[in-house]
């Protein structure tokens, strides 16, 4: 199957890096309408909207993901819109209803990213209890189960530890059941993905780091008679030469905002590091990794279009199904990626398909 491409919608201010470097990236609805239209024109299949309630990593203003996805649905025709939600701050019945509404508006393009949370300050600020790491995943699993039942069944009855649903209908149903993505890379996240998610999103990583997760989650899913797909995050810098691209990365790091990066580091101690295994997102990230707040530099999509396309093919070979991209200058970079890299990847995928199976 051909690789899918997604991009991070910059629905928060400050761009995708914690840096004071000049960025041509807006966060308003008008900017995002333009980016989504360019993205679908040049071959992206998915747009991912993040959920954020309180400024972190310099994201001073944040547009809410579901509301913005709904608006983007009306100005686009093809792209699938993945809105992130945080169980605990939303009820699954409300979210199921909102997503089926977006699916109607968009003629079947609604998707959801269920994120289990790392930012204690948001829960405290908005007056909701903050659960232990693995407890948050138990709640997310119930959340996903409730949404799916509401989307698929005439009437839903559910008795869980977190949610009770009593003969609830949901009409209209979505046109097609929205795919469920999930963020989170800890052991609890991997197990939840194997049981209930359609897609497992990974923070930026090395080839080995991605492969270990893909192999483990595939194995766990097989034991549950399931299959799922894998998305890998990457911050993309393409320039005419490898050296120019590397220089942009050095400039981003040189202009990084140490106070904001250190603030972010102290907030993310409640992610992977707080799990019983002390593994998962940001558990081993260093200062430079954190400047792209989803470890996107680690994936290595930095270089010439040819070099970046080759690296993407390596990711495909180890089992990645989707590349989630972020950029410095959205005003230029989405189009450049779509025009210079995606066609090369398609060409290389066709060559791969022609190779004899050994
Ligand atoms: C691609 C991706 C997107 C994510 N989006 C968000 C988001 O929008 N908001 C958020 O609070 N967390 C987001 N997360 C983080 C998740 O909340 C995750 O569950 C949390 O960091 C705990 O990770 P852990 O399971 O590795 O401990 C995202 C993670 C990934 C990989």
Automatic annotation (TrEMBL):
Which is one Pfam family of this protein?
Bac_luciferase
Q: Which domain of life is it from?
A: Bacteria
Task: Fetch the InterPro entries from UniProt.
Answer: DMSO2_SphG (IPR024014), Luciferase-like_dom (IPR011251), Luciferase-like_sf (IPR036661), SsuD_RutA_monooxygenase (IPR050172)
Q: Which UniProt keywords apply?
A: Flavoprotein, FMN, Monooxygenase, Oxidoreductase
Task: Decide whether keyword Oxidoreductase is in the record.
Answer: yes
MF terms from GO for this chain are:
monooxygenase activity
Domain Luciferase-like, residue spans: 21-321
Q: What class of enzyme is it?
A: oxidoreductase
Q: What protein does this entry describe?
A: FMNH(2)-dependent dimethylsulfone monooxygenase
Q: What is the scientific name of the source organism?
A: Paenibacillus plantiphilus
């Amino acid at each position: 199957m051909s690789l899918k491409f997604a991009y991070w919608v910059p629905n928060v201010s400050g761009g995708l890096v914690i840096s004071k470097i000049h960025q041509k990236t807006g966060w308003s609805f008008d900017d995002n309408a333009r980016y989504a239209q360019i993205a679908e024109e040049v071959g992206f299949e998915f747009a991912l909207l993040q959920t954020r309630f309180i400024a972190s990593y310099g994201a001073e203003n944040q547009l809410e993901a579901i509301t913005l996805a709904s608006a983007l649905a009306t100005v686009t025709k093809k792209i699938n819109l993945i809105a992130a939600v945080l169980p605990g701050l939303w009820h699954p019945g409300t979210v199921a209803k909102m997503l089926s509404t977006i699916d109607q508006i968009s003629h079947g393009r609604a998707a959801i990213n269920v994120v289990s949370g790392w930012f204690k300050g948001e829960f405290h600020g908005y007056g909701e209890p903050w659960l232990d790491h693995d407890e948050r995943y138990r709640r997310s699993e119930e959340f996903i189960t409730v949404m799916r039942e509401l989307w698929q069944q005439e009437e839903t009855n559910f008795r869980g530890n977190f949610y009770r649903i009593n003969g609830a209908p949901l009409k209209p149903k979505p046109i097609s059941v929205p795919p469920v993505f999930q963020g989170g890379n800890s052991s609890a996240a991997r197990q939840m993905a194997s049981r209930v998610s359609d897609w497992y999103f990974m923070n930026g990583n090395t080839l080995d780091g991605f492969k270990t997760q893909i192999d483990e989650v595939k194995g766990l899913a097989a034991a549950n008679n399931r299959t799922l797909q894998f998305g890998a995050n990457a911050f993309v810098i393409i320039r005419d030469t490898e050296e120019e691209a590397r220089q942009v990365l050095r400039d981003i790091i040189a202009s990084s905002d140490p106070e904001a990066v250190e603030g972010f580091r102290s907030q993310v101690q409640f992610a992977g590091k707080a799990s019983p295994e002390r593994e998962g997102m940001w558990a081993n990230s260093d200062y430079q990794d954190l400047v792209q707040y989803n470890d996107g530099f680690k994936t290595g999509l930095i270089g010439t279009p040819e070099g970046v396309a080759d690296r993407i093919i390596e990711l495909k070979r180890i089992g990645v199904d989707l590349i989630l991209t972020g950029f410095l200058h959205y005003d230029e970079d989405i189009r450049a990626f779509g025009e210079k890299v995606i066609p090369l990847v398609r060409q290389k995928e066709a060559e791969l398909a022609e190779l004899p199976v050994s």
